[in-house]
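User: Can you write out an input/output pair for a complex, sequences first and structure second?

Assistant: Here is one pair. Inputs:
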Amino acid sequence: MDSNAYVIVTQGLGRRFGATVAVAGIDLQVAKGEVFGLLGHNGAGKTTTVRLLNGVLTPSMGSARVLGMDPSTEGPRLRRRTGVLTETPGLTDKLTARENLTLFAEMYEVPRDRLTRRVGDLLALFGLEERADEPVGGYSRGMRQRLAIARALLHDPEIVFLDEPTAGLDPVASRQVHELIARLTQEERRTIVLCTHNLLEAQRLCSRVAVLARGAIVAMGTPRELARRLAQSSRLTLEVAPEDEAIARAAIEDLGGAQMEATTPGAMVVTGIDRERVPKLVAVLAQAGVRVYRVSPHEPTLEDAYFDLQPESEVTV
Ligand SMILES: Nc1ncnc2c1ncn2[C@@H]1O[C@H](COP(=O)(O)OP(=O)(O)O)[C@@H](O)[C@H]1O
Ligand SMILES: [Mg+2]
């Protein structure tokens, strides 16, 4: 890809806090229009990366270009073109949603003639119109979060950073936020960087994901690629004629490395046969005269991959 198509490029970007290495020299390339996920558990370095990319923190090593600018020297100019939902977005409880947005729009110098309309449009888009003139102190967590995302979009930024957008939300509110993000991502000119420790969220929303552990990128790719490449435990469902089950089991045992779990007569879940060995499995069963009705490998999920990547002791769910 033409290097101009990348809106974020980093080279060995890193940041230390005393003896703690928060970000350990990462190389990233994010193309315009991508929904790029930074996936990792608490302390992996996601927030620090976002702060480095917005020039809120200066790097201890390496460099970054964001929209062609150096965040560490051109922060204010850059931040006019990026929007950030931080982990703890401060909203003013005494003000209404409309007032909160208007205040920020003024700070971002959204032109007066456009401001009222922009605020109104965002309130409608985020389903907050009906209660737009109530103080946000009385809002639910989900409503507050939607308002905070709306605020990050006020100045129509080209890149939007969403740091843990559904943390602390109940499933219904999370789903609303997911739908909102999905809608935002349909506008191809906008790039989204989404930080999350939620695998399902990354899998649902992101076109590409970098998995961070202890500040380093341990894997990167589409959720599907990552799952394929990294999931060690592969599973498949097998259905054979019930009378042939015993022969099937013996044949599979001869293959080695497989575990079987019977479900209903003739049906079983087989683990330990990776994708490359599936044709061999089918051939062996056919040779043994087993009548095979169904062989369906389970698509590995990003979750399988994630657990394979994280040292056991660090995995928190
Ligand atoms: N301002 C700071 N001062 C000291 N340590 C920090 C600071 N910010 C982050 N860290 C440390 O850097 C590491 C990465 O933190 P962070 O980027 O917040 O991770 P994440 O967002 O993935 O949870 C953690 O060990 C954290 O304690
Ligand atoms: Mg964080």
